[in-house]
Amino acid sequence: MKWLSVLFLLSAFSALAADISGNWKATAEGPNGAMERTFTFKQEGSKVSGETNSTFTGKSTITDGKVEGDTVTFTIAAKFGDQDVKLNYKGKISANEIKFTSEMANGGGGSPIEWTAKKM
Questions:
Q1: Which of 13, 54, 84, 106 has its CA 20 to 30 A from that of 76?
Q2: Domain-by-domain residue ranges, the chain?
Q3: Whole-structure pTM over 0.70, yes or no?
Q4: How far apart are CA 69 and CA 4, in angstroms?
Q5: Alpha-carbon distance 97 to 85, whole Å?
């Protein structure tokens, strides 16, 4: 009976997860000025995949994505010059806006970047 209650709570929690499927445009202030990035999210249940594109790093695939309640997390692989890096994203979803922070995985250095994404 205890497991049934836990399963019910987990199902209810998953049902409350926001659906971010679709196209989003994000802006941020970086060390060298304003930056833009587009995201195309595909969500199935709590799993998120898709791709992202920016003029600075080009096109990247979204991996390890998940939505839990109003929080979304995922990773992208990007190229800065000739260096391959992984960036971790974490965001809070509210209606048609997501406030993200991104930072290099494994403490790669640099300050987190704050993004604001709007549904297109």
A1: 13
A2: 2-119
A3: yes
A4: 21
A5: 26
